[in-house]
């Protein structure tokens, strides 16, 4: 009796071996995830069942020489029902081979009845609905095959002329319990496989939720890092829980060596360090403590910030849990507004000055006329004095004209004209000035230049101002060069001299009104040139090296139709 019980326990252990292999397979995370069924790689399940079948066949025997003891059909049937058609056929063939060559007792009748070959059509017919059924349905389908199989095992000794109930009562009871326990064991095995599959599926679902949550958190963090606002979250006690890159960069403006780890987990008040506006800080602190929505302007060091605060609330419960702070650096905006106010005041002053200078010219013209009359009636000894006064009046009138040209903001009248024609009309005046100074003028004009929309009078004034400045910067035998270039987008006028050049500090202030390096200059010439170029939507650049000379480059853009014609010509 004890030996029979040991044989039954060995069979149960061998039959259970495939369950341990499946559990190990799942715990190691080796299950493939292709179709979402258990296992996706059914080869391992079939192999595990085949190994359990072989162990059961090697340990197979008969109870008291009457009933066939081999539980290998249970993992075999489970493997056939869970596996594919091809793997099921291979596993059924392996079951027959084990019954023929390994299992005891031998014989054709034993092989046919003990292997359950007669139930294979039913087994393969149940395989497809088995995979779609619930746990209870799967257990029932397995029992539909195991019950007849256990009946065949009970018929084998009867066919051999032995009745199990002719044995002693204890032996017959053990054999009967073995038959019924085998059927129950099959249900237990199916339930265990389904539980392993359910736990694995739940694990995969939780991993998917965790991955989605982590991705959403990373995405939210990336979004907050991209937003050009400094964002920081605090808990109920004012301790920093998180911040974005913009907030970290803003903090480093005041504490250069600060790291993210140095901020998170610390009270936010530690980072004001007494350098913030005390009143504004106290208001922000009260708003945080009372979890109120607010916005305050705070001065911290040399920077000005707009601080927004709002409580964080749970959607379901409505309870607050922390505060979010949004800081915006408005220092540049405040400065810009201040500068705009200053510019508006300067513009008003400029308009007033332009009106005053315009009115001054009228009495100056009267004074000049009466001086000329007085000169005609005075003796010749006073001519030199009258000449000095008249020249100074003309010089003052010239300064007024330059100032009025600089102050005017009206759109100048333009006409389509070649820049070369304007240069050729101005060149005799430049040659005359150059001859008086012992200098020369060189023209390098591009033949394929395009027409431009220009105000001829203003462009002449531009060329004369730049040319005469270049001459005044050169000594005798100096060469002033006027050069033109044309591209598909713009026409360039280059004025080059070989004079003394300028320093970097002089070049920075070059176009500022009333800045001059000449002894008798007004400082309005280059400012007027810049105003003319801007009215023509152009650009003017300066390249100067001390001791070598200066190059002014003026770029005039081609209008749309001119650009199209240039493209067609090319």
From TrEMBL:
Q: Would I find Nucleotide-binding among this entry's keywords?
A: yes
E.C. numbers? 2.7.13.3
For this protein, the record's Gene3D superfamilies field holds: 1.10.287.130, Histidine kinase-like ATPase, C-terminal domain, PAS domain
- Which species is listed as the source? Paenibacillus odorifer
Its organism's taxonomic lineage begins at: Bacteria, Bacillati, Bacillota, Bacilli, Bacillales
Catalytic reaction list = ATP + protein L-histidine = ADP + protein N-phospho-L-histidine
Q: Which InterPro entries match?
A: HATPase_C_sf, HATPase_dom, His_kinase_dom, HisK_dim/P_dom, HisK_dim/P_sf, PAS, PAS-like_dom_sf, Sig_transdc_His_kin-like_C
Q: Which residues cross the membrane?
A: 7-25, 45-69, 76-102, 108-127, 139-160, 172-193
Name of the protein described by the UniProt record: histidine kinase
Q: Which UniProt keywords apply?
A: ATP-binding, Kinase, Membrane, Nucleotide-binding, Phosphoprotein, Transferase, Transmembrane, Transmembrane helix, Two-component regulatory system
Ranges for domain Histidine kinase: 355-560
Give the matching Pfam families.
HATPase_c, HisKA, PAS_9
């Amino acid at each position: 009796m004890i030996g029979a019980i040991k044989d039954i326990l060995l069979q149960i252990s061998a039959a259970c071996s495939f369950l341990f292999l499946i559990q190990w397979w799942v715990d190691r995370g080796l299950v493939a995830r292709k179709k979402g069924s258990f296992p996706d790689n059914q080869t391992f399940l079939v192999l595990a069942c085949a190994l359990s079948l072989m162990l059961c066949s090697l340990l197979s025997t008969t109870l008291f020489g009457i009933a066939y003891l081999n539980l290998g059909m249970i993992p075999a049937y489970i493997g056939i029902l869970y596996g594919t058609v091809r793997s099921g056929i291979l596993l059924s063939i392996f079951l027959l081979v084990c019954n023929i060559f390994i299992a005891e007792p031998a014989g054709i009748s034993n092989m046919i009845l003990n292997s359950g070959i007669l139930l294979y059509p039913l087994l393969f017919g149940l395989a497809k609905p088995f995979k779609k059924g619930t746990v209870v349905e799967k257990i029932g389908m397995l029992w539909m095959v195991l019950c007849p199989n256990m009946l065949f095992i009970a018929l084998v000794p009867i066919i051999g002329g032995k009745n199990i109930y002719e044995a002693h009562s204890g032996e017959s009871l053990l054999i009967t319990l073995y038959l019924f326990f085998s059927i129950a064991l099959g249900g237990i095995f199916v339930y265990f496989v389904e539980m392993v599959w359910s736990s694995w599926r739940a694990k995969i679902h939780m991993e998917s939720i965790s991955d989605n949550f982590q991705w959403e958190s990373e995405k939210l963090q990336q979004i907050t890092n991209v937003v050009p606002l400094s964002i920081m979250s605090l808990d109920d006690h004012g301790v920093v829980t998180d911040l974005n890159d913009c907030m970290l960069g803003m903090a480093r403006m005041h504490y250069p060596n600060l790291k993210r780890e140095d901020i998170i987990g610390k009270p936010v008040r530690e980072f004001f360090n007494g350098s913030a506006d005390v009143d504004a800080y106290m208001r922000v602190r009260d708003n945080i403590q009372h979890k109120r929505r607010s916005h305050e302007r705070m001065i911290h060091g040399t920077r000005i910030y707009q601080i927004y605060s709002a409580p964080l609330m749970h959607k379901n419960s409505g309870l607050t849990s922390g505060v979010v702070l949004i800081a915006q650096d408005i220092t540049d905006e405040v400065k810009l507004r201040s500068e705009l106010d200053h510019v508006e005041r300067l513009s008003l002053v400029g308009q007033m000055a332009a009106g005053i200078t315009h009115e001054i010219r009228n009495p100056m013209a009267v004074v000049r006329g009466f001086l000329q009359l007085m000169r005609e009636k005075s003796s010749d000894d006073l001519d030199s004095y009258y000449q000095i006064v008249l020249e100074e009046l003309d010089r003052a009138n010239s300064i007024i004209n330059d100032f009025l040209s600089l102050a005017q903001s009206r759109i100048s009248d333009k006409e389509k004209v070649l820049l070369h024609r304007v240069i050729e009309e101005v060149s005799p005046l430049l040659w005359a000035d150059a001859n008086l100074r012992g200098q020369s003028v060189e023209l390098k004009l591009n033949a394929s230049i395009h027409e431009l929309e220009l105000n001829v009078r203003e462009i002449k004034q531009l060329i004369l101002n730049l040319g005469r400045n270049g001459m005044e910067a050169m000594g005798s035998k100096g060469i002033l060069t006027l050069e033109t270039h044309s591209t598909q987008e713009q026409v360039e006028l280059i004025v080059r001299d070989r004079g003394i050049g300028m320093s970097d500090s002089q070049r920075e202030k070059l176009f500022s009104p009333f800045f001059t390096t000449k002894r008798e200059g007004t400082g309005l010439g280059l400012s007027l040139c810049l105003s003319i170029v801007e009215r023509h939507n152009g650009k003017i650049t300066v390249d100067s090296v001390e001791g070598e000379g200066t190059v002014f480059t003026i770029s005039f853009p081609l209008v749309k139709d001119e650009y199209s014609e240039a493209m067609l010509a090319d």
